[in-house]
C-alpha cells in the first residue's frame, strides 16, 4: 500500500469524523474529500488500468474510519448491528465514490466533477427515503453543533449542507491543482477564478447564514412546557419488570408536578414511557393512564404527550404485512404492535404510530417479502417482530386548539423531509420523545440531540425534547439550545417556546436538491454505460 495514499486516506476519514465529534468542528468537512481527490488523480495518472480497484481500497479505508469513529457506540445496543452499520455503510459510500471515479475516467473532468456532486447527493436522497436507511452520516448533519453557519437550511434542508461540503471540497481541490503543478493552469485567469471560487463558496454561505441568524426574530404566542426525564435503565429496569410499569409512570408524574403551574400547557414524557402493551380499543379504561388523568384533574387545561407500546386487534384478518398472530389462540387472531405517541387531555386521546423504524431493531425492510425474518428482530423496546407504521403524520391539538404539536419518535427526528410532513399538516411546535439510554454514555445520544437543532432551522419550529435518559431540553427556531438536562439523571425541566405558523421554503418543497441530483445521476450513469459499450465495440473492430 502506497504510504502517501494511505496517509491521505486516513486524513480524509479523520476530517469527515470531525463533524460528528460533538465539537464545533463541522467546518473541517469542507476539506475532507480533498485528500481522496488527490489519491484519485494520482492513480488515474500513474496506473489508469488498475486505478478503479486501488481507488476503491483507499476510499473504503477513509469511509470505514469515518463510520467507525462516528458510530461505534451502536455496539452498546447491538454488537452485530454495529459491525453491519460500520462495514456496510462504508461500503455503500465507497461504491458511490468509485462510480464517480469510473465516470471521470470515461467522460473527463467536467462530467466527472458533476458526477462527484450528484452521485453523492442522489445516494443520500435515496438512503433518506428507502426502507434500508441509516442516514446518521448525511454530510449536512456535520453542522449540527454550529447552527449559526447553516441558517439557510430553511431553504435547502440538510442536503443543502451536503451540496456545500461537496462543492467546496471540489473547488479547493481544483484550486490546489493550479498551485501544485498537477494540471495546466497557464492562464492566470483560471488560477484566480478557482481561488476566488473557493473563497466565495465559504464566505457567501457563512455570511448569509450569520445575517439570517442575527436578524431572525421569533414571534407569536408562547406555550409553557414541562419535559420529563425519568432515567430508567432500558436494559435492566424498564422492560424487565424490576421497576413495575405503574411505578415508572408515577416517577414521570411525580417528577413533573413541582414544575406545573397555571402557565403549563403540556407535560411531555419520553418514548415507551408506558412500557407494557395496551390495546388501543381499551386506552380510556387503561390502568396505566390513571396517573396522567389524575394530573389532568388537578390542571384541567393540561395536555400530556407520552410514549407507549400499543396494540391493534384485526381479528381473523391479516390486514398488514407486519401483523402477527396471537400465540395460543384457538383460531387465528392478528394484531399489530406499535411504538406510539399518545396525546391525552380531558377531551380525548390522540394516537400517532412511529413510522420511521430502526432497521434490525424495530423492523425488517420490505416486510411483504421478508416477513419470515421477523424472528431476527432484536428486542429493544418490550416487543419483538416488525412493528406497524402509519402512512401519514398525525398532528395533535391542545384542549383550546391553539397548540398543535407534531411528535417525532426517536429515530424519526433525523429525517428532515419526514419531519416537514408534521408542519405541512399544521404543526406549530415540534416535540421529540426518545429513549437514548441504549447507547450508554457515548457520543450517540449527544449526536442525536444535536440533529434536532437542524430540524428547528429547517421548519422554523421550536422543539421540546423528552428523553428517558440522554438529553432532554428545549431548542428555539434558530437551533439554539435554550436548556438541556444532564446524562443519567432523574429530572424534569420547564420552559416557554414560541409557536409558529409560517411555512419555510424547505417545508414546502422538501428535498428538491436530492430529486434533482437523482435525475442527473440516472442520466450520467446511462451515459457511462453507453460510452463503455461503445468503447468495447470499437476495441473489437
Instruction: Please compute the radius of gyration using only Cα atoms.
Output: 25 Å
What proportion of the residues is helical, as a percent range? Answer: 40-55%
The ordered H/E elements are HHHHHHHHEHHEEHEEEEHEHEHEEEEHH
Envelope shape? globular
H/I helix tally: 16
Could you name the CATH class of the largest domain?
Alpha Beta
Description:
This protein is an alpha/beta fold. The protein folds into 2 domains: 3-216 and 511-540; 222-509, Carbon-nitrogen hydrolase (Nitrilase/N-carbamoyl-D-aminoacid amidohydrolase), CATH 3.60.110. 45% of the residues lie in helices and 15% in strands. It has helices spanning 3-17, 34-46, 51-71, 79-107, 109-129, 153-156, 158-180, 188-215, 234-238, 245-256, 290-298, 367-370, 416-424, 443-459, 505-509, 512-540; strands spanning 222-229, 264-268, 274-279, 303-315, 324-325, 334-344, 349-353, 405-409, 429-434, 463-467, 473-475, 481-484, 491-498. The strands form 2 sheets. Strands 1, 2, 3, 4, 5, 6, 7 and 13 form an 8-stranded mixed beta sheet that branches. It has a 5-stranded mixed beta sheet with strand order 8-9-10-11-12, with helices on one face. The two termini are 37 Å apart.
Topology:
Layout: H1 3-17, H2 34-46, H3 51-71, H4 79-107, H5 109-129, H6 153-156, H7 158-180, H8 188-215, E1 222-229, H9 234-238, H10 245-256, E2 264-268, E3 274-279, H11 290-298, E4 303-315, E5 324-325, E6 334-344, E7 349-353, H12 367-370, E8 405-409, H13 416-424, E9 429-434, H14 443-459, E10 463-467, E11 473-475, E12 481-484, E13 491-498, H15 505-509, H16 512-540
Parallel strand pairs: 1-2, 2-4, 3-4, 8-9, 9-10
Antiparallel strand pairs: 1-13, 4-6, 5-6, 6-7, 10-11, 11-12
